Amino acid sequence: MRPRVLSGMRPTGALHLGHYHGALKNWVKLQQDYDCFYFVADWHALTTHYEERDVMERYVYDMVIDWIAAGLDPEKSTIFIQSRLPEHAELFTLLAMGTPLGWLERVPTYKDQIEKLKDRDLATYGFLGYPLLQAADILIYKASYVPVGEDQASHVELTREVARRFNHLYGRSADFEARVAAALALLSKDDARYFEKQRKAFGETGSPEAQAKGEAVVRRAALSEQDAELLLGHLKGSGRSILTEPQALHTEVTKLPGLDGSKMSKSYGNAIGMREDPAQVRQKIERMPTDPARVRRTDPGNPEKCPVWQFHKVYSDESTRDWVVRGCTSAGIGCLDCKQPVIDGVLKEQQPWRDRAEAYLANPKQVHWIVEMGTERARTVARQTMKDVREAMGLNY
Ligand code: TRP
Ligand code: SF4
After folding, report:
1. Which in 14, 317, 344, 352 has the greatest CB count within 10 A?
2. How many A from CA of 243 to the centre of ligand 2?
3. Are 298 and 331 contacting, i.e. CB atoms less than 8 angstroms apart?
4. Partners of 81 in beta bridges
5. Which CATH number is 148's domain given?
6. What is the pTM of this model?
7. What does the angle CA 376 – CA 379 – CA 382 come to, to the nearest 5 degrees?
8. 265: in domain
């Protein structure tokens, strides 16, 4: 069994080169070594765009087409849509019951986004719950690894805390407390009191000393192996692990900025779509701003101050990059010359995406079918987890 990887993207419509180099390329690579689950986080998109009901469906399928065009293989990866699996909502609700408000208010993206998206009213219950819904997405598939950008690290951290708390609260059998009490009664009164004191100290501070002292009491008492095990488990606060603590997978990603050098984003108008028309791609790159110091063709430039150079770093080989540096700093080449290899590189990269997407655009049913298969595969896993969760919480009636 290969370890499971899970990740999601909010449907923002057709993807651009920044999405590809920052995430999707890596998703494709992970298919070789992991059991990959990739989904469209349409509920997450609603937390900020709850009014935009007319575009969601198109955005969802445009994005899935881009995924497949880029090389996600529906035979290898499970591709699905969050909102088709109400199990995510059920787990979100159950986790919400015991998640302290402060944990969510303290997630750094919460205040950041409210600050950044000032034109939207994000003082909603759904938006506060964003990272907890994400935790449910991850935990329901017992994923080991979550490939996400640095900006999402705090969400994976929250997920780990939520899982730990859940396992602590529910990861024990119904008679756990009674069995612990019975085992404690076998100790002398003083030992029992001392043990409980160390257990509390360990629970609050994690002090290894308290743990060692607690263990020593258990070891020297004349207890059955079972009772000793039970008390050692009680001491560490560990129970059965029902939900898996995931790890963020911050693999190396290629940073490709937008045409103007700032972060590539559709809303900044500085993006190149993954499947954008070749003539338009050419025009966009030809119009890219360059080192502002190069006013005339005869002025030397500095690639470090030029967004085109960032594209060369992604698209050009070493000899071309040498040619750029020499030509730019000596005013030996013009900016339009310099941009040609970038144009060629982008168009060449995009060609297979366009070719692959064509078949799906002509036959949308095929895309629906792929998503349908993935959704059913995901449902099998999600249902099983929910069964375990309900049972652990005493809800299997
Ligand atoms: N919040 C993620 C983003 O904006 C999308 C997402 C939702 C996600 N649920 C997830 C990513 C679960 C990884 C795992 O990019
Ligand atoms: Fe930028 Fe190339 Fe022009 Fe130099 S020559 S300023 S690197 S586009």
Report:
1. 14
2. 52
3. yes
4. 40
5. 3.40.50.620
6. 0.85
7. 160
8. no
Domain housing 318: 275-362
Q: Is the CB of 138 under 6 A from ligand 1?
A: yes
Give residue 69 CA to ligand 2 midpoint distance, Å.
31
Which residues, judged by CB distance below 6 Å to any ligand atom, belong to the binding site of ligand 2? 290-291, 294, 301, 303, 306, 308-309, 324, 328, 333, 335, 338-339
pLDDT tens sequence across 138-153: 999 999 999 998 889 9
- Is position 266 within any domain? no
CA angle 114, 89, 31 (to 5 degrees): 85
Q: Residue 262 falls within a domain, yes or no?
A: no
Query: Are 158 and 81 within one domain?
Result: yes
What the block records as the tokens of 327 is 């030509």
What confidence tens digit (pLDDT) does each residue in 18-64 have? 999 999 999 999 999 999 999 999 999 999 989 888 999 999 999 99
d(CA 28, CA 20): 10
**132 located within any domain:** yes
Average pLDDT score, the chain: 94
